[in-house]
Amino acid sequence: MLTTIILIILLLALIGAFPAWPHAANWGYGPSGIIGVILVVLIVLLLMGRI
Q1: Is 21 left (phi over 0), alpha (psi -120 to 50) or beta?
Q2: Where are the domains of the chain?
Q3: What is the pLDDT of residue 20?
Q4: In sequence order, what DSSP letters do the residues of 9-49 get, joined into one string?
Q5: What's the CA gap between 39 and 46, in Å, rounded?
Q6: Any idea what the Cα angle at residue 46 is, between residues 41 and 51, rounded to 5°?
Q7: What SS3 class is residue 8?
Q8: Cβ pair 42, 34 in contact under 8 A
Q9: How far is it, in rounded angstroms, from Cα 36 to Cα 21?
Q10: Residue 27, C-beta contacts closer than 8 angstroms, at least 6 positions apart
Q11: 3-class SS of residue 4
């Protein structure tokens, strides 16, 4: 249940941070870097069995 919610939120964040959208055109690498860090943390938590 929690994993599904986290995956949905991550997917929505990836779509929202895509630089093709007009509101995200000038953001640079910031949003994708933040999403990458969140993804790495989630993978580590999954491997440790916390999620």
Answers
A1: beta
A2: 2-19+26-48
A3: 65
A4: HHHHHHHHT-TTSGGGTT-TTHHHHHHHHHHHHHHHHHHHT
A5: 10
A6: 100
A7: helix
A8: no
A9: 19
A10: 17, 19
A11: helix
Q: Do 35 and 17 touch, CB atoms closer than 8 A?
A: yes
**Which residue is it, tokens 């994993």?**
3
In the block, tokens 């964040």 appear at 13
Q: For 2-49, how does the pLDDT look when each residue is reduced to its tens digit (9 = 90+)?
A: 777 877 877 777 777 666 666 666 776 677 777 778 778 888 888 888
Number of residues in the chain: 51
The token pair that represents 12 in the structure block: 């929505």
Name residue 7's amino acid. Answer: L
